[in-house]
Model the fold of this input.
Amino acid sequence: MDIFRLMKDIKTHLKLSFDEVNRWFDKDNEILNFQPSNGGWTIRQILEHIYLTNFYLLILIEKGSKKAMRNYLDLDLNLEIENYSFSQDKFEKVGKYGAFEWIRPEHMEPKGELNLTEIRSLISQQYHQCLNYLDLMKNGEGLLCKTTMTVNELGKINVYEYIYFLSLHAQRHLTQMTNNELEVI
Done:
């Protein structure tokens, strides 16, 4: 898959993931606050976790995009585009809830400090940030910076792949929220 097709696919994935996350804010309080029998997070907590994870991933995405745009001056973008190949298999498990153990840092755990309206607004802003980075790097520049991602041993990934990771992370938690809702019903 070429990078331009990947960017288009990432935009589509982002829209679908963020639209689906947004729908969860409209659930009633019984569903949002239900504590699952496995002791896991409530949907309200999961939504906060998605926001927090996006927040920290977007710091890395911002740094990566700035570095990629600087690298554009010194590196051969056409050569990078020519030699790029996307390893879908590497990323597939990221979006699947329970596919592997995921130990998140403490700063990404929900603390209950924000209300749902704030979280919804912030997640919407994060979606637009992702789109802005994709627009900023519309010529393939995101290939010019790689950063290590330790989750599921992904290794060095480029800025586009980081954005895709962010979207897959949300997708992973959509399954978890669905499981919670099914337990309530």
User: Anything to note?
Assistant: The first strand starts at residue 146 and ends at 149. The beta strands are 146-149, 155-158.
